Amino acid sequence: MDRQDSVTAEEKEAYSQLSKKLKAAIGKKKEEGESPTSQLSSGEQGNSSSRERAASKDPVVVRGKGGFTENVDIREDIVPEGIDVDGLDSDDEESSLLPPKRRDGPEEEVIKDVEEKHDEEKGEEKQEEGKDKIKKKGRKHFKPIQLSIGIAVFLIISFVPFWTDKPETRRGLAVFLFAAILWATEAIPIWVTALCIPCLSVYLQISMDNANYFPASCYESNCLSTCGIDNTIEKAGVELLASLADSNVILILGGFTIARALNKYELDNRLAVWILSKASHKPPVFMFVFMALGYFLSMWVSNVAAPVLLVFLVLPILQEIDRETKFPQTVLLGIAIACNIGGMTTPIASPQNAAALTALSSSISESCTISFFQWMAVSMPLTVLFLVFSWAFLYFVYFRPMLRELPVLNLKKHEKMTWKHIYVIVVTVITICLWCTTTLTAKYVGNIGLLSLLPVIFLYAPGVLHKEDLREIDWHILLLLGGGTALGKVVKASGLLAEVAGMLQQLLQNASLWAVLAVFNLFIIVVTNFISHTVGAITILPIVAEVAFDLNDTPPLVVLCGVIACSGASMLPVSSFPNIICYASTDKHHKSYLRAPDYIKSGAILEVFIYLLTSTMGWAIASAVFGTQCLNGGE
User: What's residue 151's pLDDT?
Assistant: First the structure.
């Protein structure tokens, strides 16, 4: 230890002497009025390598009296351009500049000890840096201030009587705002917030009696004993937990299973290479093609199956592109928005569209409906403008990806196709075909959730996938979607949406039909950011139809514009099924491409555009298409 300390002192002394000598040489040259370009000892011109080293701040070696060598950084404030640092007298005992040199003997041992000590210090620094990164990452997923605000709002609204004398409705609002605040701020992981929803709803004793999820006979008695459930709160727990295995949740599970099989057998790489060989390599064109494809598929297949199919196709390509270019994020968010827009186009494009038709027939009369032609006549001009605006905004304004041309993907060296490869392809194709024909086959095979169990069964049963592959599934995405479904049930069962819609109905009794449309469009586009589009449509659109009918105006007009606004809500990952699918997409390191702020910032602009265009241009087109249809009970 003493020896190392003495060597360190000699090193410092040598460096000090060197600095003094350099400064003296610089001062001497300035006094002589010459440019300091000569050697310090002999006065001869320095060679070009020494000047380059001085200019680039390369380290040089200092040797002290004890023969110890160490790299020293000669800074510009000590050695200006032109000084020949190699010209120092190498025989000077005080200090000299020499090439790197190792010596045998005690000095070498000291050097090794010092280097080892230096490496240890560097290792400790890296460990500390790693700990800091973990702490920072942890802080990103836990924001105590935002969490405290969410809890405070929840407690105040739950237990302080105001606004309404219905405690269950007030508690439903408390759960809704709690989830909205935590989802928007990401105070805790958003999937954890989703798990809080069923728990808080049951603890606050929000009954599911108004939800009508059980058969009518179950609601005839207060205790629901006919259904084997003797407690309404217990029933609420059963229904809310069932949300975690909702049909759409199982659909994503089936999609994840197929994606894992394609990745395991490297079929996704083969598919990516084939797509890129056929597609344009210009990033904006590539993005628009996929958005247009999502729009078209959602129009005829439904915006539930379309995003699953598109993510299968595009994700292998995006995983080969650096996420720092922001191109993968741009494409994925574009696909989500395009599928949302495609869900507006036809009566069969999304579940909320069917809810709109039901709202008309049940609230007005069975003869009051919207034909396929009328629907498309109103929706197509609007949705085409929505699509083009969304593409231009996301690519050229919001993300502005730093990618000039898509990379050329080379087909990796794969093992030969075996029966497992062919089996995976067959299962995938059959599943996608069943998804695309759900409306035709539902009465034979059940809903889309049951269909989505088929790939899980047929890929795990013969050993194509194993339990280790099950660990690769992003379970937090399934929990997030389940929590969003549970929130929709709570908002409906608590009577919250009906209460707010009823208040709006009273305020708009003497208003014009356009004012009714504008107010309800704003209400529905805001609320359905946080709950299911379908739940929002089922709850709000019947009230909109009744208001229009009472005003002796055209109910189909306001209902159609309302459901278009409903499909445009996309400010959170839980806002729609396409949003969830694209949010679940990850890079090769299993890191999500998109975050909640991406949806909030871009979604806010897009929703304003959709709302304004629907309330103006949509109103004008719908007025021309529907005329006086359904007045006084329908024509």
Answer: 93
Residue type, 371: S
Buried b vs exposed e over 456-474: b needs ≥16 C-beta within 10 Å?
bebbbeeebbeeebeeebb
Q: Residue 634: its pLDDT value, please?
A: 41
Phi, psi at 385, each rounded to 5°: -65, -40
The whole-number pLDDT of residue 192 equals: 92
Which of 263 and 593 is assigned the larger pLDDT? 593
Tokens (6 digits) for 620: 């004008």
How long a stretch of residues is the chain? 635
pTM of the model: 0.68
Beta strands in 187-260 (DSSP E): none
Looking at the DSSP bridge assignments, the partners of residue 45 are 38
Residue in 260, 255, 308 with CA at minimum distance from that of residue 464: 260
For residue 452, give both structure tokens: 């989505």
Q: Region of 317 please: left (phi>0), alpha (psi -120 to 50) or beta.
A: alpha
Q: Are strands 59-63 and 97-98 parallel, antiparallel or unpaired?
A: antiparallel
Q: Grade residue 367 by pLDDT with cuts at 50, 70 and 90.
A: low
| DSSP string for residues in 36-74 | S-BBSSS-PBPPHHHHHHHHTT-EEEEE-TT--EEEEE-
Cα 226 to chain centroid distance, Å, stands at 44
> What six digits make up the tokens of 192?
């954890």
User: What pLDDT is recorded for position 366?
Assistant: 64
CA distance 202 to 368: 39
Q: What are phi and psi of 33, to 5 degrees?
A: 75, 20
Instruction: Report the C-alpha gap between 76 and 356 in whole angstroms.
Output: 75
Q: What is the pLDDT of residue 239?
A: 81
pLDDT of residue 262: 87
Bridge partners (DSSP) listed for residue 59: 73
Helices (H) and strands (E) in the chain, counts: 26, 3
Element housing 89 (H / E): none
> Distances in Å between the alpha carbon of 469 and those of 209, 458, 465?
40, 14, 6
- Sequence-ordered strand ranges (E) for 267-332: none
Strands of 59-63's sheet in order across = 69-73, 59-63, 97-98
Q: Which residues contact 361 (CB under 8 A, 6 or more apart)?
A: 368, 369
Q: Are 496 and 158 in contact (CB under 8 A)?
A: no
Beta strand pairing status for 69-73 and 97-98? unpaired
pLDDT in tens, 125-165: 555 555 554 444 444 567 889 999 999 999 999 888 877 77
Mean pLDDT over the full length of the chain: 76
Q: Is the pLDDT of residue 323 over 60?
A: yes
> Which two tokens mark 87?
């010209």
Q: Residue 69 pLDDT more than 50?
A: no
- The first and second tokens of residue 473, run together, are 């599934």
